[in-house]
Design goal:
Number of helices: 8
Number of domains: 1
Number of strands: 11
Helix content: 25-40%
CATH superfamily: Vaccinia Virus protein VP39
Order of helices and strands: HHEHEHEEHEEEEHEHEHE
Bound molecules: S-adenosylmethionine
Low-confidence stretches: none
CATH class: Alpha Beta
Distance between the termini: 35 Å
Structural class: alpha/beta
Largest sheet: 7 strands, mixed
Radius of gyration: 18 Å
Amino acid sequence: MKVEEVADYWQKNATAWTTMARGGYDVCRNHLNTPAFLGMLPDVSGLTGLDVGCGEGFNTRLVAERGAHMTGIDICRNFIAFAEETEAAHPQGITYQLAPAGALPFSDGHFDFAMATMSMMDMPDIPRSVSEVFRVLKPGGFFQFSICHPCFQTPMFNWVRDENEEPIALVCGDYFHDELEKVLEWTFTSAPQEMKNEFGNFVIPTYFKTLSGWMNMLIDSGFVLERFEEPCPDAETVEKHPSLKGTAKVALFLHIRCRKPL
Ligand SMILES: C[S@@+](CC[C@H](N)C(=O)[O-])C[C@H]1O[C@@H](n2cnc3c(N)ncnc32)[C@H](O)[C@@H]1O
């Protein structure tokens, strides 16, 4: 699929996504991924950072709050508009730009660090996007990103449930693909039914790579692997947010930090 087609899908998802996420229904992001991502993030105070596939800017704003001078890019015009609206209402000095990760409109070595939260696996040109991130980083700069875990969020994905419909295990399969494209349909499970009815499912092109495919791609781009995290909620968090039960059984997400050598 061309990047422009992927952008069209996100244009259609953006209003529903922003409304539901801002309503607190992106439970995986709010109560699992973002806390883990920020927990792993080095001190960014005073650094110049790029958020790749920033969406409506939720995580860009949180990293700006930590003192980074942030730029967010995304291919979805509607997301950039939502992000810019928020920046206008509550200025944090964030600049947003409509741009594809595979052709970043920045000079070589422009940023101290780059981040990408749950966006890299949605890009049709992942290796080129990673090379572009490498190019725009200063020597010594880091790239931290989160993705669907390649070993557990495989093309075949079915929960095994107990008699109470609780997830207890996962059936994975069809793993050995490099950049298999699938258009997935899903929504935020904890959103109220009226909202789900109103907006319908998100329709999202996604690209599957193996774990070794991800690691070797980073290494081949010139990055040095530095740190990993597989977020797992504690019992109290699962109790408060039962939709996270499955994420305590297997690692559904993988966070990676790598660095451009000096
Ligand atoms: C799952 S959303 C994540 C958004 C945001 N980072 C967050 O954590 O809420 C994936 C994002 O990646 C963006 N995206 C997909 N392909 C892209 C590309 N080639 N270049 C830039 N952004 C892209 C989509 O428009 C969407 O905003």
